[in-house]
Every structure is written in C-alpha cells, then in structure tokens.
Amino acid sequence: MKFKTLKIANQLQSLFFIMIVIVAIQGLSAQDKPNIIFILSDDAGYADFGFQGSNEFKTPHLDALAKSGVKFTQAYVSAAVCGPSRAGILTGKYQQKFGFEENNVPGYMSASGLLADEMGLPLNQMTVADYLRDLGYKTAIFGKWHMGNADRFHPTKRGFDEFYGFRDGARGYYEYTEEEQKEFVSKKLERGFENFKESKIYLTDALANETMSFMERNKDNPFFVYLSFNAVHTPMEARKDDLKKVPSHLTGKRRTLAAMTIGLDRACGEVLQKLKDLGIEKNTLIVFANDNGGPSDSNGSSNLPLSGTKANHLEGGIRIPFLMSWKGTLKKNSVYNNPISTLDLFPTFVSLAGGDLTKIEGLDGVNLLPYLEKGNQEKPHETLYWKKESRAAIRHHDYKLIRFPDRPAELYHIENDLSEINDLASKRPEKVRELYKMLFDWELTLERPLWQLKRRYEGKAAIRMDKYRKPKINN
After folding, report:
1. CA gap 184, 243 in Å, rounded
2. pLDDT score, position 349
3. What digits encode the pLDDT tens for the residues 401-456?
4. Under-50 pLDDT residues of the chain
5. What pTM value is reported for the model?
6. Rounded CA separation 83/121 (Å)
7. Dist CA 399 CA 422 (whole Å)
8. Number of C-alpha atoms within 13 angstroms, CB side, residue 66?
9. pLDDT, tens digit (0-9, with 9 covering 90-100), for 316-346
C-alpha cells in the first residue's frame, strides 16, 4: 500500500511539473520561449572526454558544461551508425519504422534497394525542425546532414531556415581544391541552397562561427540550432597548433584524434561563451551528445569500459556521452542514471517549445524534463530496441539480448556487467526466449529497409565486433 501511495504521489508530482511547464510556456511571448542548442559530435569514443573520465583527452569546456547541468550515464542512440541514428533524432521515431535502417552511402549499396541520390529521409516524415518552426522558432543546422544528397531532401526543405554545411556523411576539414569539388560533389560546403563555397578555415571552427552568427542575429527570437559537427569522424585532420597540445605519449591516429577533440571542445566553448555574452544563457536548453559509438579501428577512439565499437550492438556501439544543461532550471553537477534514448530529444524539444505531443503520431521518445524532477522515480523507458538487417538487440529493464546472424544469441545483465563479459544465455534460457519474442514482436511493426549495404559488409561488421570484445561464455 505504501508503494502504491508513493507511486501515485510521484505521478501526481510529475503531472504537476508538466502542467507548470506547459502553462509557463503558453503564457510566454514568442521572444521568451526557451532557445534550444543541440550539439552532436560524430564518431567520438565513449571514454574520450574529460567528463567521461579521460586523463588523456582535454575537454575543459565540455567538462564545464557537464558540471553546469546533468550528465546521463545510460544514454543510447537508436542505431550504431550515423545515418539511421540521426534519422531517429530528427523524427523521434525508431527509424526502421519508415525504412531508414542503414547508412545511405552511394557506391556501397546492394542493388536490391534504393541507390545513390534516391536514398534519404522519406518526405512523409516531419522533422523536429518542422514542428519547431511552426511553433515560432528560427531553425538552423550547421555541419553534417547525411539525410539524403538529392535536392528534395535538402535541410532547407525539411524545416530548417538556415543551412551551412555539407549534404554527405563525411568530408575533409580543410578547403577542397577545384578538382576535389568536382570529385566530391555531395561533400562541398554549401550555404543555404546551392550556394557552394569552401571555407578558408578549419571546418570545426567555421561551424562554430556560423552558429555564433546565427545566435547573434536571432537573440531576440526563440531559436533552434542543430550544430552537427563532423568532428571527430575521419579523415584524421587536425590543426597543427592543436597537435602540439597533445600529450607526447599519444601517437598515430590517437594523437590526431586527441587534437581533433581539442578543436571540437574549443568550438563548443566558443558557442557556449557567446550564449553568455548575449545574455540568453538562462533562457536556453543545451544538449550535447554523440551519434554512435567510436570506430576504434578507423579513428583510434576508445569506448572503454564498454565492449564493441561503431556498427555493432554491443554497448560500445550504442551507448554515448550525453549532457543536458539549462541554467537556473536543471540542477548543477547532477547525474541521471536511468536509460534514455536520443529519440527523446524530439519530444523534449517540442514540449519545451509549447507543442502538443498528443497530436503527433508514432513517437517513440518521451519528454525527458519531467523525469529530471527531484523525487521522480519513474523510468523513461522499460524497453529499448535496435535492428540492422538480421542483427538486432533489445534491452528490457536490466537485461539485454543481442541477436547475431553467425552465432547464437547472447544475454547480459547490463547493470552488473557493463562490459558485456558474462554471457548468461545458457543459464537463463527462459529469459532468452522472453526477450527474443519481444524483439520479434517489435520487428513485426517495422517497414522493410528501403536500402541496405552490400552483404559483404555484414562480415566486416562481425570481424570489427570480435576484435573489440572478449565475452566469457558461462556453460
């Protein structure tokens, strides 16, 4: 009885908190609605930030952001690679529900699905920028798009008022020559729609500069910035002065990665300082996240103590660094330990802007703000899912099942086994059957993939996974 009473009290308290936020937002003028800055890094390692415990990678500005708000210890993306992960972020839905299950990389795809510029975020899907613009926000994306190269998929046609970046999933950090621009058409820097011009400065810095300019011009309007860095994705290119700041014992890719991370942190710091200089820090929600696990083989990133890397469903492929800060509203230097998903960003942002989530069909994310209220013991998610072709995973409470195409399924108790070392499948066959069935029931609700990589890349994914894990099988 005491438990039921406490649960009801917590539910009423959460409802009261939501009502206060809704009433407050609805009563604000357009200029007083909270601004939203969403910063997304690309292919960073789980362990490669000071606030994540690194002693090698120096990230003082992001460390300060962590201390100013909430650090989430169990934040997940909805895919282990960047294209589908970003599609989930932009829509608030499991991207497999509309067929965006795999990266869209022209030249690498199976002929059985869509190819080249036919691949992109389906036009029947509304983005978070669409909704925020309808709610009176000025919207902008700076950096990587990766939601389709064709004109019909362009950011300025998907809810964003401003765009400065590139349509592709990766590019270099320095100015492309004329020959390179002809070769890498979808990688060229673009301002707005089809205004192509290369940057004279390091791209990470250029994206920060564009963000600060946008904030300056819109300081009297509510705005939404999606600062979509390509750092620290390959190619491995760092500023020479940043390389000099790296500890001498780091070599090779890891040395360059550390320097690129210094550049990323500096750019974030400049944006956050601009927010203070404009006097709008107290009216701005800031989120920092990464799009998937670090690809340790290609950029030298570390996901320790997690097993796995980008492109597989071990924790190292899907658990990410995640920070949220809102001066005067969210508690400083706090930690949130329940599992969340980047699918939660869409409903969090739209709710904050005064939108009505009940009128939006198919959302899989939730508004996170009520869960951060002191005393709220409710969990945002009991179950989370991942799928890529025949590979899939499910986390239900503290148990996680991983399904493979080339070996039996594995079962882990994540709360007690963060590194996924002790496979419990043989000891808990009933739990394996339960989660396997739950996973299959979820898959029955999904669309078929609109495109897929060539099958041989599935073999490469298995090799990469095995290289960065050492499971202990319990017989």
Report:
1. 27
2. 98
3. 999 999 999 999 999 999 999 999 999 999 999 999 999 999 999 999 999 999 99
4. 2-3, 6, 18, 20, 22-28, 475
5. 0.93
6. 9
7. 12
8. 19
9. 999 999 999 999 999 999 999 999 999 999 9
Residue type, 360: I
Query: Is the separation of the CB atoms in 346 and 90 below 8 Å?
Result: yes
Angle between helices 345-352 and 82-91 (to 10 degrees): 30
Q: Which of 64, 33, 397 is nearest to 223 (CA)?
A: 33
Three-state SS string over 161-230 comes to CEEEEECCCCCCCCCCCHHHHHHCHHHCCEECCCEECCCCCCHHHHHHHHHHHHHHHCCCCCEEEEEECC
Q: Are 46 and 52 in contact (CB under 8 A)?
A: yes
Length of the chain: 475
Helices (H) and strands (E) in the chain, counts: 13, 19
Q: Token pair for residue 279? A: 């006097």
pLDDT score recorded for residue 144: 98
Residues 6 or more apart in contact with residue 288 via CB below 8 angstroms: 39, 40, 41, 62, 65, 268, 321, 322, 323, 324
Tokens of 426: 């043989």
**Tokens 């290369």, residue?**
198
Q: What is the pLDDT of residue 12?
A: 52
- Return d(Cα 306, Cα 318) in angstroms, integer: 10
Write the DSSP assignment of 279-290 as a string of letters.
T-GGGEEEEEEE
Phi, psi for residue 143 in degrees, rounded to 5: 125, -135
Measured distance CA(246)–CA(262) in Å, rounded: 9
Rounded Cα–Cα distance for residues 398 and 383 (Å):
9
How far CA 357 is from CA of 66, 127, 360, 473, in Å, comes to 28, 13, 5, 44
